[in-house]
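Hey, sorry to bother you again with one of my protein questions. I've been puzzling over a protein and I'd love to understand its fold better. Take your time with it, there's no hurry, and the full record follows here:
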Amino acid sequence: MKNPLVRVGLAMVLSLGLLASSGCGGSGQTFYLDVLPKQQPAQMADPETVKIVIEPFEDRRVEKNRIGMRTHLWGGTK
């Protein structure tokens, strides 16, 4: 290893490996993470009265005979 560039590169790799291995060492403590949020109990609300409005329906379409027909991409209907 007479080339100084090889020595510097090898020293950098070894020092980075030493720093990475020492930084990954833990203290041995275990922390449990609860990733699911705690849901609040549902509160019962008073039921609201529902109004149903029925209005007469008027069909204002131009082509009323096209109910249930499909038009294909290349033409034709089914």
In short: Residues 4-23 form the longest helix (20 residues). The helical segments are 4-23.
